[in-house]
Design goal:
Helices cover 50% and strands 14% of the residues. By secondary structure, the protein is α/β, with parallel strands linked by helices. Helix 7 crosses helix 9. The chain is elongated and about 55 Å long. The termini are far apart. The relative contact order is 0.11.
């Protein structure tokens, strides 16, 4: 049986070594190599012809972080599936990684069985997320693309800005509207897109080819 290959990108060597041992213990997976940051990974990818099926990507790293590296992979090696593995459970960090091309987002304190499930689902389904975002993502990926013509001009502006790091108050200030009005547009977007959170709005925008504001 061919084993699916994995690369680990993490600047904490002890964690990376432990992770390698765990993944190598899975029957269907093996670790090709590890890198300490994005630049190190790119050098390794350019040096060898054998590319990994999955890259486990830390988010916060020196030199070239996980967000920058994931975007580089999306542009240059889109067939490689990126699975973010981080201590950061911040919603905006999750949104950034999804926007840049990550197919999954896990916290580093997950159970080994969940990591195995995540790796398997990435190979079989193309994506995986923890319960933190799984319901939103599964509904978004499974649903058909909805008609964006139902979204008003102001709602579209709010949708695009919601995909950025701006708070809803900052969005209201930039649109010269009250926070209550922007909240109304947000709630209307939830109904029209089927999203249940800001992350869901980001996924909707990506699926529908809407140019988001970084």
């Amino acid at each position: 049986m061919r084993k699916h290959t994995v690369a680990i990108v993490d600047d904490h060597s002890l964690f990376a070594q432990s992770l390698k041992g765990l993944i190598d213990s899975f029957e269907e997976f093996t670790v090709l190599y590890s890198a300490v940051n994005g630049q190190d990974l790119i050098e390794k990818l350019n040096a060898v012809s054998n590319k990994p099926d999955i890259i486990l990507m830390d988010v916060n790293m020196p030199v070239m972080n996980g967000i920058e590296t994931t975007y580089w992979l999306k542009k240059n090696l889109p067939k490689i599936k990126v699975l973010a593995l981080s201590m950061d459970d911040d919603e905006m960090t999750i949104i950034k990684m999804i926007k840049k091309g990550a197919k999954g987002y896990l916290l580093k304190d997950i159970h080994p069985k969940e990591l195995h499930t995540a790796l398997s689902d990435l190979i079989e389904d193309g994506f995986y997320h923890t319960k933190r975002v799984s319901k939103t993502l599964q509904k978004s990926f499974a649903s058909e693309i909805k008609n964006t013509s139902e979204i008003s001009e102001n709602e579209m502006i709010v949708l695009k800005m919601a995909c950025s790091e701006k708070t809803y108050k900052q969005i209201a200030d930039e649109m010269y509207l009250s926070p209550k009005t922007v909240d109304g547009y947000r709630d209307s977007l939830f109904k029209k897109t089927g999203a249940k959170s800001r992350i869901g709005l980001v996924i909707y925008a990506i699926k529908n080819g809407i140019h988001v504001i970084n």
